[in-house]
Every structure is written in C-alpha cells, then in structure tokens.
Write a structure and sequence with these properties.
elongated, 10-stranded mixed sheet, 2 domains, single chain, D-Maltodextrin-Binding Protein, domain 2, about 300 residues
Length: about 300
C-alpha cells in the first residue's frame, strides 16, 4: 500500500508538471546503485555500425554511445556526481539481455530491436531508429521495384528473418528464384558477381555493406519496406523511473533538433575510422517517432 501510495503521488506530481529527477532517484534501484558506487556501466557492440562499434583507437563510438553520453551527463548533474565513472562493457547478441537483467550493464548502447518477446525480459527507451527489411540491387540492373524481380534469382542469408519475407513475397505472386547464402558476406558477394539480382536483409545492414564498396553509387535500395521494427537503448524492465530519465533526455534531444543532427552525423556523413558514408536518410517512420517519441512496437 505504501508503494502504491507513492506511485499515486508521483503520478499527481507529473500531472502538475513538477515531477523531478529527484523523485525518480528515490524510486530507481539503478540510480540508487549509480549514486552508491559512483559508477555507471554502459554496454556496447563491437561492430554494430553506426550504432555502436569500435573506432580507430579501439574505443566504442556511434550514435547510441552519443545518446548514452547525454544520459550520463543528465545523471551526473541530477545526482551531483561530477566524477561519475563510466565503465564500458562489450556485449553480444547472446549475453546483452542477461547482462542487463543481472545488473552488470545499466544501459545497452547498441543497435537492438524491440519486440513483444523482448519486452517481457527488458525495457527499451523511446525508439531511436526504425528498421525494415529491404532489397539491395545494382543500379545498372534497371530494377526499380520488387515487381521487376520476377523471373530473377534473389539471395537471402540462411537463418535470417529475410528468408520468410522473401518466401512470403514469392507466394503473393512475385515469382523469383530464392537462394540462401551461408552468411551476409556471401550474400553480398552473390550480388556483386551477378549471381543474384537482389539481396534482401535489414536495411541499415545493407546500407553498411553498400558503403564499404569501392563505388557505393553502383548499389541502391528498392523502395518497398517490410516488417517495421523499432530500435532503442535497452534497460532493466523493473526500473521504470530510470527509463523515465533516459526517455526524458532523448525526448528533449528530439524536440531541440539535436537528435536529428546526430542522425545526420552518423547516417548521412563520413564516419570514422574509414570515412564511409552510409547515405541513409531518416525514414518517414523515424521522423514520425522524432515528432512524437514513443517506445511502441506498433506502427
């Protein structure tokens, strides 16, 4: 009953516009731990370009690290911890959720998609990216839409969600031949060597492959999109107060235009360490989330 009463008071204060970070700290086990230890632990990915990856000096960089840095600054200010130590922990697809759950990592500053299944285990901030499966083709092929793939060979990577998408498209009447490569590198090689007319995968991954080519303009993404998925910074599920702080920082950055500037920096400009440009303008779906921030998985 005491906890319920405190929640009601918090709700009332929020409605009155005076719900402060101080109240959130009193409720948040994560913020309490950070204040007690003088440390915050940020998880990062080593090769999730441009979200979170190792730069030329082997230090983690990316748009997700920039967003996390802004959250850290807010926490330092609110908790009055000018010497707050930031600890970085490398995470991967297998251990990132357990490390959030057991408290080793406070925020995963990566490129992780939210889903109904994952939301039963962890929480996500408001969406910081919206992904979709798409087709990558050679611009010289003359292919302008998925309908142009009729009668052609397309490639997907074995075990990828794109396998099911491609089969579904074929079942709806776009009759192409589907081949499955053992990994993404082999899929891209098949497109490069004209053994496949198109390669289907997550759009930002395709943009990364395109940027690494000697002449990126030789490749283009078809306009059709499939299965929109939001990305966000991953947090512990049992700490809504900490999520409120992280969300508040990101929302403020979106409202001020700072988030859009960061997006341009990482998705539409040369990025370290090799000066590659993903040439990936913000999608209409992400623009909508910037205008009205949300952690919903529905579109």
């Amino acid at each position: 009953m005491v906890q319920f009463g405190r929640r009601l008071i918090a709700t009332a204060l929020a409605a009155a516009g005076i719900f402060s970070a101080t109240w959130a700290m009193a409720e948040s086990p994560t913020l309490d731990k950070i204040k007690r230890t003088g440390q915050i632990n940020l998880g990062y990915r080593e090769a999730s370009i441009p979200f979170s990856y190792l730069g030329g000096d082997a230090k983690p960089i990316g748009i997700s690290l920039d967003l996390c840095a802004a959250i850290v600054e807010k926490i330092k200010s609110d908790l009055k911890l000018p010497k707050l130590e930031v600890v970085y922990t490398s995470v991967n697809g297998s251990n990132r959720i357990p490390l959030i759950q057991n408290g080793t990592v406070d925020i995963e500053c990566g490129g992780t998609s939210s889903s109904a299944a994952r939301l039963k285990q962890v929480a996500f901030t408001v969406a910081t990216f919206v992904s979709s499966a798409r087709w990558l083709t050679k611009t010289s092929s003359g292919i302008k839409s998925v309908q142009d793939l009729k009668g052609k060979t397309v490639v997907v990577t074995q075990g990828s969600n794109a396998v099911g998408f491609a089969m579904g498209i074929k079942a709806k009447g776009v009759d192409f031949n589907i081949v499955q490569a053992k990994d993404h590198a082999e899929s891209m090689l098949m497109l490069q060597t004209d053994r496949a007319a198109a390669f289907m995968e997550d759009d930002i991954l395709l943009a990364s492959f395109r940027a690494r080519q000697p002449n990126p303009s030789e490749y283009g993404l078809l306009p059709e999109t499939y299965d929109l998925v939001p990305y966000g910074l991953m947090l512990r599920r049992e700490d809504p107060e900490f999520k409120a702080v992280a969300d508040g920082v990101i929302k403020q950055m979106m409202a001020s235009g700072e988030f859009t500037k960061l997006y341009t920096k990482w998705f539409e400009s040369p990025i370290p360490p090799n000066g590659e440009n993903l040439q990936f303008p913000m999608s209409d779906q992400l623009k909508a989330r910037v205008a009205n921030p949300s952690d919903s998985i529905e579109f």
